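Thread title: Can someone regenerate the structure for this chain?

I was given the following input by a collaborator and told the matching structure tokens would be attached. They weren't. Posting the sequence so someone can regenerate them.
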Amino acid sequence: MQKKINNVTWTADAEIDRNIGTKLQALLNWHHNGVGPVDGYWGKNTRKAMQAFQKANGLDVTDTLNAETWQALTKNEKLTTQPVLVSYQLTEADVNVKTTTIPADSVAKSKLEGMYYESLTEALAEKFHISEKYLKSLNPDASFTAGEIITVYNPGNPNTKPVHRVVADKATETLYAYDENNNLIASYPTTVGSTATPSPTGTHTVKVKVHEPNYTYTANDGSKSIIPPGPNNPVGSVWIGLSKPTYGIHGSPDPARISRQASAGCVRLTNWDALSLLGVIKKWCNC
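Best answer:
Regenerated them for you:
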């Protein structure tokens, strides 16, 4: 499977099967146009990432993959020749990651030591930016024990260019990141508010950046509960607070549902995209 996907190429008008889909998602990710958890399927998050890539590279924005876009995606030989799927030997640290059962009730959540992963495969899927189902399908006979070699997706390197402006576009459910010269340098699939709790409009600035935030839950009776940090915290592993109080850009406990669920007025990213943005977004950045 590794060799087949690593060596696959797309030709004009060819069907985007799961092998091509995985390669396409990898190329988009490596160009810093995030697709969410890699699953090998052509879906709306992959299409949005492709359109952001087209926009950043001065190409016609299309609803389907075309030869011009594939050529632009594959012209960087260093990126094109690196493997999409790789072998990885599980370590003791990998298999001993803290896990817990997450209750539905927010007060019960506040009594946990941490909002940890619920399983080892959830932790590994997030580490390698891949859907948990796809990880399991690539390793159908794996026991996921220390020393075992499994097949994983190669997530590449995140954007390292400083981000001076971001735009959360509700229509495309995408967060666009720009450098100081207003060049589009990265994009991330996102969930932007909801009808009941819309995200704020206008321009705001970044006021605070927090890795591993807690979350304050307010019940209908006004009582408050502090939900501890962890990847399954309601705001995930990252909080980038804005100048408008209580609003921010943050991670997610459920990366597979990015762009597929509502948000309570904030801008929700996968934990890995939020962590990548946290490292490069400037305080007082316009949002």
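The two ends are 42 Å apart (CA to CA).
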